[in-house]
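Let us begin with a simple case.
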Amino acid sequence: MFYRPQVNGLSAELVRDGVIQLIARHLNNKAQISLRYMLSSAFPKNGVIKLTPERLIEDPKLQDLAITQFVIDDGWIGVAAGPSSTPRKHREYRRE
């Protein structure tokens, strides 16, 4: 299962993208079905993982801000906020 980054104003989120994938040599069909069921319950298809705390989103002092950068690279997540009137540039980074 994969998650893709999504920005909504001052909220940085990870949204589930795709189906659950199990890669294992020694799992029989019964074990795979059981694991898929458990993981589907823990990570619902329309599930969203919110990275920005609600208290920051609702803080009146931060209402003029928006997420301007959201990068995931090698297991690290970087999020930056700036004035919401700043033109946003989206870049996709790929490792070769």
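The second case is a distinct protein. As before, the sequence precedes its structure tokens.
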Amino acid sequence: MPATQSPFVAMIAHWRNPSLRSAFAVGFCILFAFIGTFTFVNFVLVRAPLSLGRMDLGFVYFVFAPSVVTTLFAGKAVARFGTRPAIWGALAVAALGLPLMLSSHLPYVLAGMVLVGVGTFFAQASATGFVGHAAHENRGVASGTYLACYFFGGMVGSAVLGQLFDRFGWTACVAGIGAALVAAGVLTAELRLPSHAGETPMVPAERRD
């Protein structure tokens, strides 16, 4: 591509790439699920039977600590197993946390929050790395487009899942979160790196998927 190409034209070119287009959608689904979980679970935590106070609610968010640690290993997981298995595994971990958050016992709810946090953080790191490798030109534009889709997913998630929560309750909200994770898993099947990406040290040639 010529050096004078505008960012808009570069963005359109990225959208025409099926793998990048799927990656953008995966990012959308990830923050959709994350926002849906950690926005509306607060209302569950403060009402009966859990009935946490404000101070206790603040301490609950130490559940993010494991996510910070495990995300550091996302690059190694992608290099060893491939992008798609790494994301699928992360999404599965997040999905395992959803039924736990329907419990009336705080330890189970916290465990579910940990699993969702770990899974979505890990999937996000893996998908971000994929975008950087799949875009052989104008990578900054590709990363920016991914982030725009990611944050837009959070906005849509807060609106859609908020309606589910208000109208049908927490169980319906959790079902919506699960649907987003399933959609991300389906889209992940389309993530395929071009042949030149095997030259990068992060993703060996035998792991270009």
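The mean pLDDT is 87. The chain has nine helices and no strands.
Keep these points in mind for the review questions at the end of the chapter.
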